[in-house]
Structures are given as structure tokens and as C-alpha cells.
Specification:
Blueprint (H helix, E strand, L loop, with lengths): L8 H6 L6 H14 L24 H20 L7 H9 L3 H16 L3 H22 L2 H12 L8 H17 L5 H31 L2 E3 L10 H6 L8 E3 L16 H12 L10 H17 L5 H5 L8 H32 L8 H16 L3 H4 L5 H17 L2 E4 L11 E6 L5 E10 L9 E6 L10 E8 L12 H18 L15 H12 L5 H7 L11 H9 L5 H18 L11 H11 L18 H4 L9 H17 L6 H12 L7 H9 L6 H6 L4
Parallel strand pairs: 5-7
Antiparallel strand pairs: 1-2, 3-4, 4-5, 6-7
Helix pairs in contact: 3-4, 3-5, 3-6, 3-7, 6-9, 7-8, 9-12, 14-15, 14-22, 17-18, 17-20, 17-26, 18-19, 19-25, 26-27
Bound molecules: zinc ion.
Length: 706
């Protein structure tokens, strides 16, 4: 994924850069007082953060001062006596908040990948302050008046295309944020925003407690037959009297694949299912309040519902389009899931059992079906996926073939943790492209999952080249053992580098339009697209080399990996659609609707969209633990993952029919898509490159649904 922005996206767009005199004077003062390196630009190559000198205590004062500096800059623009011009208004806002942007980019990188108590406390303290900063800008009446004056006569300003887009982009953000409301309604809106911020934080905290409290302890080893011994060892209770299995955020739990004891499976599954609808960690009241305030906010802003308001700047644009997209997928997905369910039921029977398949049985028996059908064992392929080979001979190799880029490791750039590596990337002609940090190994101070973001954003305005990092959670090998990856981890590495390429090829004047600053339902497209090269024959043969023998991966194994890629896809798409649908339905309720019962609403919502026809295929997240939409930034946006999946398969289909992995194809994709940031209408950009609108068929084919 692209790292979730910890405060409103709108705020990030404007916490850009500031070079006012006021700022440079202050920063010098601060520097001599405290030697806080965040107050000045880094002198390292590419402006890379100097982690050998930045201290945890530096962030709070830098961010607080950054907030003050931006406030002053915004007030100066808003209250200026001069006639509004592009330079004194749009550009001035774009340049405001340099210190805040620089320090928060570094701060949130560490808060996610290498946190500690100091950073956690700062994070908690800053969240509401950054949300208020957003309102400070977008609900400022004088500031909006100046943007409106310019926007209304934009054609007479003779701006270049990107500057015009910058003006339009800000203007739309003002409108979406509520700048057209009366002063009275703006006050109401600020209250709603504050309430939403408080409720989402509360949901996140309650869910964290619910997840921890939901961990299941088994005291009898027999109940855990089938579970990996090393794993069990790491889960031994402190008193030595049992094993405590923590809950993952999804409905299905990884252990359900290997647990032989059916009663244990049911116990673990039910603990996950009911984690947050009882006792002290019940999230249902929070959900009720939250969807209600969101609906009221949308109404105040003149929309039928929250989704309609929130989808304005996306590719999908309206809830109707999202629902139309779903309705094309639901029958196909559930039909495939039904066929998979039949196969599993047969497998259950063949093992001498006569029970009906339940959700907690699915993964255990599906794994048997997979082994029987495809004869694929993860342990057979891992020796061919050694981490450095995958990165340098796979990920970098594919990028070289497509875009001509090359790499060199830089050992002179300080990192924030010893496992982090830094590469310098170059264009085909040897020109510098940017710095790339890899932080691949799991550790307790790192959040789960994988993500990409920038330490430094590309912009011609500041003559900046990108500094980008990828974070994964691969288990760190012991001692000098090599890190051998699962195919999933290989795929994730390609995925995150796809985001990185989107950032590296950015070629924008303005940082707020640069690279990955695009709509939520587009940003996962370049990354998912890049996953395709992992299995591309020329690439695979180059990196999949046995770490001991140096032997290339045998064709037989490649075939097995490919054949099994459509396995269980009916289940996987159905559980995703169920989650996406719940999200959409929670966010299309109108402001006058009262929700009485969260679980009843959920049941009805799944029934209405025929996503409940398979009892054994539950939603990927139930409402009560759906943190993407109630704590994270994906409210009315969870559909994005399936949407970009459609785009990436359709795009790869173009490559397949135009000669595949070639320099020419790569260059064309870079020129027309990857380098364009947020400067074009995304639908039109895609269509211009592809020659037609995206079609769903390649995605269905890739998932084995057609
Ligand atoms: Zn991603």
C-alpha cells in the first residue's frame, strides 16, 4: 500500500514548502539554541534526512513551530491588501509550511516503521492539531475569496497547464472542505470534523484493545495439532501453562489453515468474529455515532450522503458508479466461490467427515485442495527467492528493462535502523534519479503490512529529486542465514517498488501535484501493475536462482506457481466485495436515518447485495473491526483496491499484446502515466495511454473467473 496519511489528505497537500524570510530567521535562532536539525534543510545528498543527528525529541518542537509558521504565512496571504495573483496567493499557499512538511514526512516514517514511546506520545498529541490546521486553511474565508477571484477568471490569467491545474486543485479542495458555507455552518462543520477525528481515534483505540483482549489461549497441546512448532514456541504464555494466539485484523486468521482440531478452529474464528461487539471493547456505539456525524457533515455540505461527498475527486466519482462496478462482479465472484465451496465439501467428505463446511473450515480444507490440485509446496520455492536476488536481479532488473534505470548501493547515507539499505538510482544516460531506502525486515517497533512514501518529494519548484522508502515485514533470518521469501513477499516487493517508480518518475513543478499525490482509486494502480513482472518469464529466470546451487528455477515449478495463481480467487474476491459493500452502504445512509442495531444493518446490507448467499464466505472485515473505514482514511474508499485491480490487469493486457517487457513500452508508460503525477484528468490520462476505457475482463481472467 501507499502509506496511510495520518491526517486529512487535504492537509498534506498544502503542508508543502515555505521560504519566507520570517522562517529563515527563526530557523537560525532555533538552530543555535537547540541544534535541532529539522529546522534547516539537510545538507546531505538529495536532502536526505541526517539520521545520525536527528533525535526523537526534535520532532515535537519542529512540528509545532511548523504549524505556527504556516499559520502566519496563511494569514499573511489571506489578509493581503494586494490584488490576488497566482504568485501572491496560489504559489504562496503552495510554499507555506515547509518546516511542517519536512518534519512530518520524517516523523511519520519513523512513527510507522521504528516507533517508541516518545514518538507515540508525539503522534497522539499532533493528530488533532494537524486536523485543525486543515480547517485553518480551507475554512478561511478571506483566503478562499482570493482563490475564488482567481478561479473565476482563470482563463484570463494565461497560466501554463500545470499552474492552472494547481489553482483548480486548490479551488476544488476548498469547495470540498466547505469553503462555500456560511460562517455559521462553518462553525458547525468544524464541530463535526472534530467529532469525527475524536470518534475515529476512539474506534482505533477500542479496536486495539479488542484485538488484544480477543487473543485465544489454548492450554492443551492436542488442541493445536498441525500448528508450526517454532510459531507455538514464540506464543507460549509467560506462566508456561499454555499458548496465546493473537488476533489478526481480518475475519480469517492465518492459523486456521493449519489447525487440525475443528473445535479449536471454531474457537479462534468466533473470537475474531465477536472481538468488538461485546463488553468494554464494543465498537458498535462508536460506529452508530460516526456514520451519523459523517452523514450530517455530507448534508451540511449539500450532498445526499457521505460517499457522494467523499468520491468527488476520485476516478469512480459517484457511489452509483462504484455500485455498478460491484454489480458486474458479484455474480461472477459468488459463482466461483460456490464452485470452490463444492470442491472443499468434497474434500471434507473424502477425509471421512460428514459435517457442512463452515467459515472456520474453509482455509484448512482449501489448503488440502490446493496441494492436491497444484502440488505446490511453499518450502519448495522459497530457496529460489533469496531477498537480494529478488531485489537486484528481479525488481531492479525489470525496471532496467522497462525504463533503463540502474542502481548503486550508498553506504555513506545514514539510516534510522541498521537493517535499512540505501540505493542511488540513475537514468539510462547516467543522470541521477533519486535515493531509494529499503526497510524490509519485521521488528516489534514496526507496524504490520507494507508501504511506500517519500522523505523528499520531487518538485522543480525547489529543484528536488525524490528520496523514497519501501517498508515490508519479512521475518529476519537468524545469524548469517539468507532471507528466503514466500511468493507473496516477492510480489509485495514488486508492488512497493511500483509505488516508488510512480514517485521517482514524477516530473512536476509543484510538490502538491507530484508523483503519488493522486486519487485513492488510482494510487494502487502503478504498484499493482508492477507486480505483474514478478512472474514474467525473462524476469523470473533472472532472479529466481537457488541460493545454494545457483540453479535457475525449474520450469515445472514456474508452471505450478502460475497454475495455482487462480486458486481460491472466488473466495478472495467475494470477501473483498462484501467488505467494500459494507463500507459503501454505511456511507450512503442519509442524515435522517437512525441506526438502531449495527449487526442487523450489516446483515441486511449483505443480504441486499446478495453477498450472503454463501454462509462459509464471510466479509473480510466485519463492521465492528473494519478499521480502514472507521479508523483509517478509507471511508467510502475500500472499493479502491478492486478498482485499481481492474486497471492493472487491463494495463498489463496492453503490454502483453504490444510485445511485453520492452524499453519502448516502458518509456511510453512512463511518459504518459507514471511521470504525470496529479496534473491530468486520470480517466483521460488512462484512456489516452490505453486507447480505450479500462475493461473488467482481464481482471476476471487473471482471477480465473472467466
Ligand atoms: Zn500499495
Amino acid at each position: 500500500m501507499k502509506k496511510a496519511i495520518p491526517f486529512l489528505a487535504l492537509a498534506l497537500l498544502v503542508v508543502a514548502c515555505n521560504n519566507s524570510k520570517e522562517k529563515s530567521n527563526q530557523s537560525k535562532e532555533q538552530m543555535s539554541d537547540t541544534e535541532n536539525l529539522l529546522f534547516s534543510e539537510s545538507t546531505l545528498a538529495y536532502g536526505a534526512p541526517d539520521f545520525s543527528k536527528i533525535k526523537d525529541e526534535d520532532f515535537k518542537p519542529a512540528m509545532l513551530e511548523g504549524i505556527e509558521q504556516q499559520k502566519k504565512a496563511v494569514e499573511a496571504i489571506a489578509n493581503s491588501e494586494e490584488e490576488p495573483t497566482f504568485d501572491n496567493t496560489v504559489l504562496a499557499l503552495e510554499k507555506s509550511g515547509e518546516l511542517l512538511k519536512r518534519s512530518s514526512q520524517i516523523f511519520y516514517a519513523l512513527a510507522a516503521s521504528n516507533t517508541n514511546e516518545t514518538l507515540q506520545a508525539v503522534e497522539e498529541e499532533m493528530a488533532p492539531k494537524l486536523a485543525a490546521q486543515n480547517d485553518m486553511i480551507y475554512l478561511n474565508e478571506n483566503l478562499f475569496k482570493r482563490f475564488k477571484t482567481l478561479y473565476d477568471k482563470n482563463e484570463s490569467l494565461s497560466l501554463d497547464a500545470e499552474s492552472l491545474k494547481l489553482l483548480e486543485n486548490y479551488y476544488e479542495d476548498f469547495e470540498i472542505a466547505g469553503a462555500n458555507l456560511s460562517s455559521e455552518d462553518k462553525e458547525k462543520l468544524k464541530e463535526y470534523n472534530e467529532k469525527i477525528a475524536t470518534l475515529t481515534t476512539k474506534f482505533g483505540k477500542t479496536l486495539l484493545d479488542a484485538n488484544n483482549a480477543g487473543a485465544v489461549t489454548f492450554t492443551n497441546k492436542e488442541d493445536l495439532i498441525g500448528v508450526d512448532e517454532d510459531f507455538l514456541k514464540s506464543k507460549e504464555s509467560k506462566d508456561g501453562k499454555g499458548w496465546t494466539i493473537p488476533l489478526q485484523n481480518t475475519t480469517q486468521q492465518p492459523l486456521l489453515q493449519s489447525m487440525e482440531n475443528r473445535a479449536s478452529r471454531e474457537k479462534l474464528y468466533m473470537a475474531a468474529w465477536n472481538r468488538a461487539d461485546q463488553g468494554a471493547n464494543d465498537t458498535r456505539e462508536i460506529i452508530k455515532e460516526l456514520v451519523e456525524v459523517r452523514a450530517q457533515k455530507a448534508k451540511l455540505l449539500g450532498f445526499k450522503n457521505y460517499a457522494e461527498w467523499s468520491l468527488q475527486k476520485t476516478m469512480a466519482k459517484t457511489p452509483e458508479n462504484v455500485n455498478k462496478f460491484f454489480s458486474g462482479l458479484i455474480p461472477t465472484a459468488t459463482a466461483k466461490a460456490q464452485a470452490e465451496s463444492d470442491e472443499i465439501q468434497k474434500m471434507i467428505k473424502s477425509k471421512g467427515q460428514d459435517f457442512t463446511l463452515e467459515p472456520w473450515d474453509w482455509n484448512y480444507y482449501a489448503e488440502m485442495v490446493r496441494k492436491e490440485k497444484y502440488d505446490l509446496d511453499e518450502n519448495q520455492i522459497k530457496p529460489y527467492f533469496e531477498l537480494n536476488n529478488v531485489l537486484e536481479k528481479g525488481v531492479f532488473y525489470a525496471a532496467n528493462k522497462l525504463y533503463g534505470i540502474t542502481y548503486k548501493e550508498r553506504k555513506d547515507i545514514p539510516t534510522y535502523q541498521e537493517d535499512v539499505k540505501v540505493y542511488e538510482l540513475f537514468e539510462e544516460n547516467g543522470d541521477q534519479l533519486g535515493l531509494f531506502y529499503t526497510d524490509y525486515f519485521a521488528r516489534p517497533s514496526k507496524s504490520g503490512g507494507a508501504w511506500m512514501d517519500n522523505f523528499v518529494t520531487q518538485s522543480k519548484l525547489y529543484n528536488k529529486k525524490p528520496v523514497i522508502y519501501n517498508v515490508l515485514n519479512i521475518p529476519k533470518p537468524v545469524g548469517n542465514e539468507p532471507a528466503l521469501l514466500t511468493y507473496d513477499e516477492v510480489s509485495t516487493m514488486f508492488h512497493e517498488f511500483g509505488h516508488a517508480l510512480h514517485g521517482f518518475f514524477a516530473n512536476q513543478q509543484y510538490p502538491s501535484l507530484s508523483g503519488t499525490a493522486v486519487a485513492r482509486d488510482f494510487v494502487e494502480f502503478p504498484s499493482q501493475f508492477n507486480e505483474n513482472w514478478a512472474l514474467y518469464p525473462d524476469v523470473l529466470k533472472n532472479y529466481a536462482i537457488h541460493y545454494k546451487t545457483g540453479e535457475q528455477i525449474p520450469q515445472e515449478l514456474i508452471d505450478k506457481i502460475k497454475n495455482s495463481s487462480t486458486f481460491n480467487q472466488g473466495y478472495s474476491l467475494t470477501e473483498n466485495l462484501a467488505g467494500s459493500n459494507l463500507d459503501m452502504q454505511w456511507h450512503t445512509i442519509s442524515a435522517d436515518k437512525k441506526i438502531e442495531d449495527v449487526n442487523a444493518f450489516e446483515k441486511e446490507a449483505l443480504n441486499r447485495t446478495k453477498l450472503d448467499v454463501l454462509h462459509a464466505v464471510p466479509p473480510r472485515y466485519r463492521s465492528t473491526y473494519f478499521s480502514h473505514i472507521f479508523a483509517g482514511g478509507y471511508a467510502a474508499g475500500y472499493y479502491s483496491y478492486s478498482w485499481t485491480e481492474m486497471l492493472h490487469h487491463d494495463a498489463y493486457n496492453w503490454f502483453e499484446t504490444h510485445g511485453g517487457l520492452t524499453r519502448e513500452n516502458g518509456q511510453r508508460f512512463r511518459d504518459m502515466v507514471l511521470s504525470r503525477g496529479n496534473t491530468l484528468n486520470l480517466e483521460k490520462m488512462y484512456k489516452d495511454w490505453r486507447g480505450s476505457d479500462p475493461k473488467i475482463e482481464p481482471m476476471l481472467k487473471a482471477r480465473g473467473l472467466k
